[in-house]
Write a structure and sequence with these properties.
The structure is a single chain. 15% of the residues lie in helices and 54% in strands. By secondary structure, it is mainly β. An 11-stranded mixed β-sheet has the order 1-2-3-4-5-6-7-8-9-10-11. β1 and β2 form a beta hairpin. The protein starts with 8 loop residues before the first strand and ends in a 10-residue tail after the last strand.
Length: 233
């Protein structure tokens, strides 16, 4: 009868530095965490991971009932940052070691989205660094529900232009997971796109001789195979 049990409190961390072998140094300027049998709430977090500065807040409801009675876990989370360097989180060789990347891709298996989670996340990051790419003014939302992940109005600037995307990944039929994605691409520089996007080099080699900007709309639906690759048939 956990719902009748009174236990609540607050955890506060101030000016704490955390160092481990698996993560870049984590700095916690301030963290306020409230809890009770009914919810877990990250009231506020201000800190850093490596050179990435992060502010976050969020809340989980129904967590004990979800754990004991297999009900739905409900949550929401908001993240804001001036910079988010994914290369630091992935390790020094993850972004550049093509051999490892190929091996990891071949070993992928279907990722099943739980059906008993209803989770929303909003994000606003001024700069995201991944490999040699720099995405700026990144914003958008994520919704996990009913064995599906939905992207909501994801926007970022790249190659002198901007991209807006939406869509989802559905695992209701785990034997044939499905994706549906839409892209709205505006004024991307052709030379930068060819330089950094290997897919464009392979699918449109004539782009190597072009200069200027391009815009396009793209909609894609596909089933995925057991290795998370699109079934091109």
């Amino acid at each position: 009868r956990y719902e009748n049990f009174q236990a609540d409190g607050r955890l506060i961390l101030l000016d704490m530095n955390y160092v481990s072998d698996s993560l870049p140094p984590v700095g916690i300027n301030s963290l306020y965490f409230d809890f009770s049998p009914r919810f877990l709430a990250l009231t506020s977090f201000d800190g850093s991971v490596g050179s990435s500065t992060i502010q976050a807040k969020g809340r989980m409801d129904n967590y004990i009932q979800w754990w004991l009675k297999d009900s739905t876990l409900i949550g929401s989370f908001d993240l804001a940052a001036n910079k988010f360097d994914l290369n630091e989180l992935m390790g020094p060789t993850a972004a550049s070691d093509s051999t490892t990347a190929t091996a990891d891709t071949s070993a992928l298996s279907v990722i099943e989205v739980p059906g008993n989670i209803n989770f929303r996340m909003g994000m606003a990051v001024k700069e995201v660094i991944y490999d040699d790419l720099k995405l700026t003014n990144v914003r958008g939302g994520l919704h996990i529900h009913d064995k599906r992940v939905d992207l909501k109005d994801v926007f970022f600037n790249l190659f002198g232009g901007n991209i807006t995307m939406a869509g989802g990944y559905d695992t209701k039929n785990i034997a044939k997971p499905a994706i549906d994605l839409t892209y709205d691409v505006n004024d991307l520089d052709i030379e930068q796109t060819v330089k950094y996007m290997e897919t464009v080099q392979k699918m449109a080699p004539i782009a190597k001789t072009c200069k200027g900007k391009f815009s396009t709309d793209l909609a894609m639906t596909a089933n995925l195979d057991p290795h998370m690759q699109p079934d091109l048939n």
